[in-house]
Amino acid sequence: MECQTKDFQQEHKKEMRAVQDAMDVLSGKWKIPIISSLCYYNQRRFSDILNDIDGISNRMLSKELKELEINLLVKRTVLDTQPVSVHYQLTDHGLTLRTIIDNLTAWGVTHRRKIVGK
Amino acid sequence: MECQTKDFQQEHKKEMRAVQDAMDVLSGKWKIPIISSLCYYNQRRFSDILNDIDGISNRMLSKELKELEINLLVKRTVLDTQPVSVHYQLTDHGLTLRTIIDNLTAWGVTHRRKIVGK
DNA sequence: CAGGATCCTATACGATACTG
DNA sequence: CAGTATCGTATAGGATCCTG
Q: CA A37 from chain center: how many Å?
């Protein structure tokens, strides 16, 4: 411990800022489920996602999708049907989250086993 | 899309529950920075962590460490020195988060570049 | 169908002060 | 040093109703 220089610590703080940047985008109750849904189904309408995710309200879905759009993770496409339908899909950048989601899924499974016990 | 069976959807909902389980443990402002700190330094005292993480209060650190302990991610050890010092370290189970944290860190970096522009 | 507007509650979090 | 207690605020999120 005594050998740790200021640079060493600064390097770590930089890393922490990066993880927090990531978590700022992904935290909350619904972001990951939404991304997960779009990952799984590739292309999805508003009401489909509403159905994919148990317990989410339209208000929340709308709000979260907007934030994901702002963060360039999701692309919104309005189709001029009657009545209008709207498609959501992950951008290329959004797709780069796939590995993380998969890892989190796997970890979630083993964690539950660990906590609840089997 | 039309070929998706009920089973297919149920499988996906299971996966989503798993990611949410993971996020329940990791969400919030401080959990990941704390784990990151313990990952980096291996063993750390309360006041050290307080120093590692910019902006965290002792109240929050105390609270978050307790939750991490309950989730078996962190082990607390009291050393009978005068005055007492307390060591925190990741459990084996906590260490399994390393990959995820590394991935999130890397993703955070590219995401910031993407959003802020370079 | 795809949302927006409104209202309300819970909890996350912050600041400060105190203790063994 | 390693916390706990107390108080206050802000934000996340839920419920319900409305609209082009």
A: 10
